[in-house]
Write a structure and sequence with these properties.
Shape: globular
Strand content: 5-15%
Number of strands: 4
Radius of gyration: 14 Å
Oligomer: single chain
Largest sheet: 4 strands, parallel
């Protein structure tokens, strides 16, 4: 599964994860920080733990700064190109192998910022995981629950 927290609240995202019976949240942000309350790494991990969910962060599955800058400009093709180069690195491939193990062992959900999964690199990561595990990708929507 995947989820983006843009336009959402931490409560709505946690509710969506619980409703989907997610056991592990896989944070695929290069920088697990946020101005939105509850979404920085420590706060997010604590909020998940309070609800019985596990948190893991794979920095190497995040988009490098040039890709994040392209995404902010709405230049999805450049973001995808930058992220494809990142995903080809040995560090990202090692992180992907770990993420696959997590996803095989428990219901997992990839987290990033963008609401629209199609314009977020998490869809590429989800596709790589699904391609190796045969799992179906489901994009959750935290905004539907509270607003």
């Amino acid at each position: 599964m995947t989820i983006g927290y843009e336009g959402s609240t931490i409560g709505a995202v946690l509710d969506a994860l619980l409703a989907a019976e997610v056991a592990v949240l896989i944070d695929v942000r290069a920088l697990p920080q946020s101005r939105k309350p509850g979404f920085s790494k420590r706060q997010l991990a604590a909020g998940l733990d309070e609800r019985g969910l596990r948190y893991v962060h794979f920095r190497d599955l995040g988009t490098p700064k040039p890709g994040r800058d392209a995404a902010r400009r709405g230049d999805v093709s450049t973001m995808h190109r930058v992220f494809a180069a990142q995903l080809a690195t040995a560090a990202a491939q090692a992180a992907l192998a770990e993420a696959i193990l997590v996803a095989r062992n428990a219901p997992a959900c990839l987290l990033c910022f963008e609401h629209d999964a199609a314009s977020c690199h998490r869809s590429i990561v989800a596709g790589a995981i699904a391609g190796r595990t045969g799992q179906t990708i489901v994009h959750l929507n935290g905004r539907l629950l509270h607003g």
